[in-house]
Records
---
Amino acid sequence: MALRGNAELIRLCLIVHDVDKSIENSEIEETIEQTIGDVSFEIHEGKLYSIEDTPYRKLYLNFENERNLNELMKIGAIEIHNKRFLVSRYNRKDTPHSGRITPYLLIKSSEKNNSKKTLKDLTEFNIKEYFTTFGKVINFQRNDDHEATLKFAHYDIVDRIILTNPSHEINGVIIDVEKAVSPQASK
């Protein structure tokens, strides 16, 4: 039961990326409320890090319901003092490339496959048809018989696929999914 609760918490969390220290948490709250209306969420600050000697942090927003979270994700960013801050869904830290914003998804034949089927047994049409249920597929690239990379119209589609399940089944073939930073992002 604790695992289910943890999964629910992860599903209801967003990250506001690269927020400089001059931005107050109250400004984030006000901007979100002006953008999507009166919502309830908690803000937690991440550790400070530097980009070109400027201190930044990530802010973690824990929402009470997924509807409000999805409303903010439709916008994808918030703007404060003419600065734009990207917003993404939280991924578990053990997710490859967790915290990165990317429209690329690496799919691989899973070791859980009981049959001898691999990704090569699926057509590009089969794969695109399945993943189109999450959002628009822009590009498909088969890397080899066991993996391929998909590019989606928006990075949030990739996060939603990963949060749904790290393994998916298409026509009897179990595939594992993870974020990729480029079209040929095999490890």
---
Amino acid sequence: MAKSCHNGSIPAMLAAFPFSAHLREAVLFPVSTGEISFQWSDLSFPFMRFRRIGFEISAKSRLFKASARWHQANMTEIPDHTTPEAPASPATGDSLQATRILRDAIVSCVLPPGARLSEVVLARDFDIGRGALRAALRALQESGLVSSSPRSGWRVTPVSAPEIREVCAARRHLEPILTTATLDELAREKLAALAGRHAALMQRFDDDPTGSAAIRAAEREIIESVAEALSMPMVQGWLNDLWDRSVRLVNFFEDTGPVRYTPAPRARLVQALTEGRRNEALEHLQAANRALETWLLERFLESGARVQSGRPAPARRRRAAQVTS
């Protein structure tokens, strides 16, 4: 018995296929061949099955293409440097240690100003994991010691007159808060001992050309101890960044020129703070900052042509600088 074609589903099915008008009419009306009489609508079941299979193939194809696009976007090889747009990694013990290692190398000019930093070379030479290394470079970028660009990768911040003015201006505005530190008896005793050591080193400054590093280390202990007494971790972090950048500038110009920087007599600062003479302590900080800015700008003007031209570092630094090649 022939199936009826007037169920309303066949025309809708045919509308989805690019058949000719003659074929659509043949499906809707019975045809006689003489001995065999049948209706084209008997083919409705094969057509519907063909359509269902086609939809399944199309869905699987779309799923495969979407999976391929996701794999291409998320499973590609990580580049040798991290661009500024990449998300920062959370700080871990390894990343904090890596930050200290690289910070010391930059401040001491083992990694000289303007040097390009390869993650592969840094990880190998400093024995740092790639994940901790990227987190450390991010932290140093926030401190102003390195910079990054999509094309050039990581780079140690170059020495420039704007940087000198920025560092000194920031210290001029932020360091006066040190005069508000509340010192207990233990802090006073510690500062007195540090001040005595700093004064002893200063007495041998002219006779010991290699004593600058020891004097700066003693000076740093003094001002860090005062900053710690503020109980302001964020402010202390800002000050540490500024002091690191200042020491880096001094190290660079001392390593590349004949003039040494004369440190400020920090024993006077300690005496003023422990005796409660805040105005005197403030005057000391301001005078020390003015002397530093003047010295840095004079050294920059003397060596500006060499700094801007990017000529090689002196022989004693050239070997250390090879870690960036």
---
Amino acid sequence: MAFAIALERKPESDPAFLFRCEHIITGALRRAAAERVRVIEIDGWFGARWCGFAGTRDGQDVLDLERLRMPPFAFKRVRGERTFARRDRELIERRGGRLHPRARRSGIATLTTDGRDRLFAWYSGGSARQDRAALMVYEMPYEHEHRAWYCGFVRKDGAWHVSETLGIDHPEIEALEHRYHGALELTPPDHNWMPGPPLRAVFDRAYAAWFAEQPALARHLAERLLVELPGQPAALWMLAHAQLGFRKVAASAQALRSIGKLAHVQGRVFVAKAWAQYHGEIGDWRSEEACLREVVQLRPEDMDEWLALAFLLVRQRRLDEAIAILRHATTLPGEPEVAHAHLGFYLRSLGRFDEAIVECEATLAIHPRYRLPARVLRDIRLLGIERSALRAVPDRADPVPDRPDIEGEWMPSPSVWPRYVSARDAADQGDRALARHRVEEILSDDPLQPAARCLWAELCIEMDVDDDVPKWLAALAPLASLPEERERLALLWCDYHEARGDEPAREPYLREFTRTHPDTTPAWIILGGNLARQGKHEEALAIHRHAATLEGDVAEALLNAGLVLRGLGRLEEAEQELVRSLAIDPSVELTQLALRDVRAVLAERKADRSQ
């Protein structure tokens, strides 16, 4: 399976144009290291004036390339919306809700994201009946860093050629289309590993459920497969992953042991990686390492597998070995900037600053917007290190700090910064106990240092150690003067209460988020789930229905409303909400299952009444 999106082949669309769009969009996704991309089909050609166009205000067109807004396409021109998400070495279509509202509101619309959406693409539908078409891409890698670009195409002698550009040039388009496509391909599965049709569709549903963090559905479908095909390797593999989702490590190991010996390389790789995950869950790092070393032997040219091994060695504090593996990874096909970036990060941790600078520059030469190397260079400067190599490097310091807890007044002072970096490095390398110890050293000298307090509270919550976290968070409140500082503090309170299963205590913070983010669905959907878990079903229903009127994941809001109504026994209303959700996004398995369940119960009730 190639690492590339697959646009829908419609009779009115020219496959040659779709092919170019697929490669360019996939290249942009890989270059941005984005988690997912939203792709929207627009009926017919659209011009370069749409790039950055946000609508009209007081009778004047608004064009803003600094702060991108929702392109105000009429709803009747929106022919389809799809979301593709990265999963290891492949792209999987995911539910993403509707981006463009059915009825466009007046004024300027915000381009709503839920934190994962960082790449958006609009392309021309109906290219078979026209000789011109367009592709427009919005890149939003960070909150305050946006980029928009546009490509116009014309068809000549059956081929599509770039005729017009805005915000991008021909060499960059060519690099996206060719350099980034096809470097991550999987060996096609054979029948010794995957089930054949029609049961392959059941496995695909189970895989999608596991990817959507629905282990119960994934386990149910895997068990259904095993009833039809006892001992089927891929079904056992899926069952093992689903059991891990319930922390049933013994059941997971039993499923993996049942797979037996496989001849196919892909199956052996998948099983070895599953065993690695199992050993990681139980804390057996040595066995996890053995499994990952087996994986790199089976896939010696796969950079991602070498990176996974390097990161495991880092968690064991075997940095020298990890660095050697990362150096090897930079020579492999794929995304060498990722290996260079982490190599620079860990060299900085060892105090090998000259080498770190070289690796960071190698990263930025490939990917100038990569955040990690910019942060490493900034840290080296703040540490006061003077190196000739560093003086020759332009200041690429990231304008947006990588953690909200060090913005504004909360930024550590230059005297504290080296120790804060050391603590953060330990946390990033998975050594939370060491990170907590280093933060406590900072707090022993400056008990009120806000960034250190935030990091300390975060570590305690992750480690499930109380240690007066509420008292420390309360002491931070008077120091939170900026809105982003207050929001960061509220998020920590939410994390604290969630870790303890205290939904009533989370509620006031979630309500505050709906007040500060009133126009988008995520805050309201999370609040609705919180209320439903407290048994406040009527209020949760009202919240989800309100969320369905906003911009964002309307399909998820309607799905949640349908599930609440199903729990209340109001099946006719539940059916209506679920049908509305599927009309927006028909690909969501959970919505399909819920609707079938509701209709089955309604049919049973009708049959009972007729008797």
---
Amino acid sequence: MLLTISEAQMGPSPSDAECIFTLLGSGHNERIQKLSPTLHAEISALKNAGRLSPEYTTLSPCSMCLGAILLYKIPRVVIGENETFLGEEELLRSRSVEVVVLENEECKDLMRRFIQQNPQNEDIGELQ
């Protein structure tokens, strides 16, 4: 998770994901920079890592990322925090994916600051 937080601090958004086997892939959320609500960090990390790697993400996965996690047969998802956005954790569990929520304060702080500076929720199904 420390690597994921470090990447999130350097990236354009604190929503960040890593697929770790050693480090097979990492990804940043680029939805604002590339004007596409589908460019989530989990999707980028999965694309870079491939299948069967555990995923570490600063934020709970949304519905779209859940589908990608299941498609790539990710066995374990470690979530930095789910207070900012409670994603599809129960559905992941129902599909035999191990879900670990850390409730990491640094992840919460990163998201709070980002939301204050960038109040856009369209990629999580909440239009403003």
